[in-house]
Amino acid sequence: MWAFDIRNWLEHLNPLTWPEVLRQIALSAGFGPHLKKDKVKRSSLPEMDEGKGCEDVITMLRNGSAA
């Protein structure tokens, strides 16, 4: 009952839906916009101990002091 039925999907395709289907295929194949990496230089970021930031977030959430 919950399975994906390809026949039902094909019945709902029309000329307006094909561009979106093809766009999704192109995006998954890597033809989407290329995002710039490292907009912020690593040297300008504050040094943090690995895992320490997670502990701070968890503590803030537990205390209810998330601002």
TrEMBL record:
GO terms for molecular function: endonuclease activity. One of its GO terms (biological process) is regulation of transcription by RNA polymerase II. Keywords: Endonuclease, Hydrolase, Nuclease. It comes from the Eukaryota. PANTHER family: HOMEOBOX-DDT DOMAIN PROTEIN RLT1, HOMEOBOX-DDT DOMAIN PROTEIN RLT2. This is HB1/Asxl, restriction endonuclease HTH domain-containing protein.
